[in-house]
Amino acid sequence: MKKITLLALLAMGISAAHAQTRYGITAGFLHSSTHVSYKDGSTAPSESMKKNFYPEWQAGIIADIQLTSRLYLQPQLQVTIKGKSKYINTDIDPSVRRVDTRFRNTSLELPVNLVYKYPLGKGKLIGGGGGYIARGLGGRSRVTYYFRDGHEMVYKYGLKFKSDVSQEDEAQYNGYSRPIDLGLNFVTGYELKNGLAFKLNYSLGLKDKTPTYTREVSTKSKDRYFAATVSYLINRKA
After folding, report:
1. What domain count does the chain have?
2. Superkingdom of the source (predicted)?
3. What is the CATH number for 196?
4. Residue 69 carries which DSSP code?
5. Is the torsion defined by CA of 205, 216, 177, 7 positive or negative?
6. Taking the model in full, what pTM does it have?
7. Per-residue pLDDT tens for 117-147?
8. Is residue 143 part of a domain?
9. Which of 128, 134, 115, 127 lies closest to 183 in space, CA to CA?
10. Which residues, including other chains, have CB under 8 Å from residue 192's CB and lie 6 or more apart?
11. Is 146 within a domain?
């Protein structure tokens, strides 16, 4: 958390010292997924569980720092909530008809993008990319068993952020994930003259989120998400 806060203050300090800087707010919806692979580099087989569309959201502040006539640096500080929903129609247990699983986690994210703005029509076409660092804040998961006789059973788990998980930790029935995430951003969109911008963003996690357990864990996982956002730059200069 301290690292991200310091980086955010540094980014905002650089922008404040720059004459051609605007500030604004940003928010939008996203759909996230997790890429799972084996630690030997091979890809994990497709899961038997089917994915549901489970949109979540992000919101925060943005700075727009003009470097050249068309090139801009855009640091952001935002809260991002990622969610995943899967289900399986199972015959493993004759008494269970279906199992639904939902995950939800919240993180503080600092993306920094280098953006090119091309004048087009009444605004500017936007394209660019960069990187991000994120710190997990909290989360939860919910597993629902639907039985063939009509009744349901629900289990709820918390999500804890730790790099190393002990046997005592596992006994608490929590889910675990590494606290820090790093990755790449790709962004495109259109900005109007009044400062309103509509963007599409793809975030590609590069860091394994699976913590180190006392037992052997053969897989690693990386987060990804696609977002549609709206931002508004205020304090515009004429």
Report:
1. 1
2. Bacteria
3. 2.40.160.20
4. S
5. negative
6. 0.79
7. 999 999 999 999 999 999 999 888 888 888 8
8. no
9. 134
10. 122, 123
11. no
